[in-house]
Amino acid sequence: MMERSKSLSGSYSKAYGDVRFGFEDNPKSYSFDGTVKKEDVVNQELKRRQRVATYNMYSMEGKLKKSLRNSFKWIKNKISHSFYNV
User: Fold this and answer.
1) What InterPro entries is this protein classified in (predicted)?
2) pLDDT over 70 (residue 61)
């Protein structure tokens, strides 16, 4: 039983030992020493502001569409109500 598990782990390490997950490709993606450049902070803040502005734009666009939809629905109901009740 013990011998079988050794051979299984050996075959596993041979088959999957050279698998890389792309962490080595971009070493500057994350800093473990805690130092952050001022430019990085500024860029992150600009990206955050742009992202928030985009969310606000989508929110306003949705409110406008809903308002227009409700307005057309109201007009349609008024016209159909006056047409069928005459």
Assistant:
1) DUF3511 (IPR021899)
2) yes
